[in-house]
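Appendix C reproduces, verbatim, an entry submitted by the partner laboratory led by Prof. M.T., so that reviewers can inspect both the input and the predicted structure.
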Amino acid sequence: MIAPTPAIEGHCDARFAPLREMFAANFRELDEVGAGLCVEIAGVRVADLWGGHRDAERTRPWREDTLVNAFSIGKGVVAMLALALIERGDLALDVPVARYWPEFGAAGKQALTVRTLLAHGAGLPAVRERMPDQALYDWNRICAALAGQAPYWEPGTAHGYHVNTYGFLVGELIRRATQTGVGEALARILTGPAGADYHWGLAPSDHARVADVVRMPAAIWTEESRWPIAFPPTGDDEHDRMVWHAYFNPSGISGMGTVNTPEWRSAVIPSTNGHGTARSVATLYAAFVRGGPPGVAWVGDLLRREAVTIHADGEDRVTRRASRFGLGFQLAAPSRPIGASPRAFGHFGYGGSLGFADPDADLAFGYVTNRPGERWHNPRTERLLDALYRCLQPG
């Protein structure tokens, strides 16, 4: 059955009318519930669209300022923030993390560098100690557990997707360097100067404009009840426990059963709970490729090139898929392209959301949705990218 197409709001240049039509078709054909889409080319916003609803019952329209949990898009944002501090000299890539965070220099991590941490090579994709549910919102407790534990592999010898710990690890470095909360550092250094409506630790006054995330899997209460469905055992008990803890320790850290609560929206969990608009995501990437917003320096050319150089490539110790990372950014790879350029960089969010920049097309892109879909190749996202790049072809 074909669903009715909701009103699509916003603007779109005539050249990109096929992109607007595909955005609408995702509602009609692929059961999009609510979403936003923004594209900037050469500093000009050529598409800024939104439509659908903020709730599963489709009673609350998605509006221009609707925020939604964009999941792992936040990893690209926290990388931008760390890189801005590196450019300023507050952090350095090839200095041990323990220089800034002394407690981290334990259990074989004394020499682990900021570079290795940013590139998902630290061997800390999960907290080993089983954490109680209430630890989810205890920043200091989670950071202390990560600082004190031994890595799952020798740092720098392999890489693995730090699903939820990435934001705590890099975020604690940011907190130490700025002597302020990570959400406050984000607003002061990145989103405030860029005018980007993206947040960690959402103010209560903003909760009313947040879209519910719909059709998430049920909350995961015990390993026994969901393990075979979520992540089938491999026979390697150490690996299986690491993966389980990466996604579900504490149990709600991936958003399962927590994502639509006031506590989650108010918390600072940078890898996972950033709330923003598609426009904010595109705005941040557009500013980053230019070194910062007008009149503000984030990164110079040398550091920006270093950030999008391959630092980790090949089989991922956590996902057991091929993955490719720069300094925090996912990089285009044959198994998971980002648009049409091999030089594109950015970060996907769970179930389809995406923020990225394509230097070859001088393009920045943001797409956010409140209905997560396929985790690896989401057809709604891929159709939007195909339509966008068709619009860019000459003639």
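Confidence is low (pLDDT under 50) at residues 219-225. Additional entries are available on request from the coordinating office.
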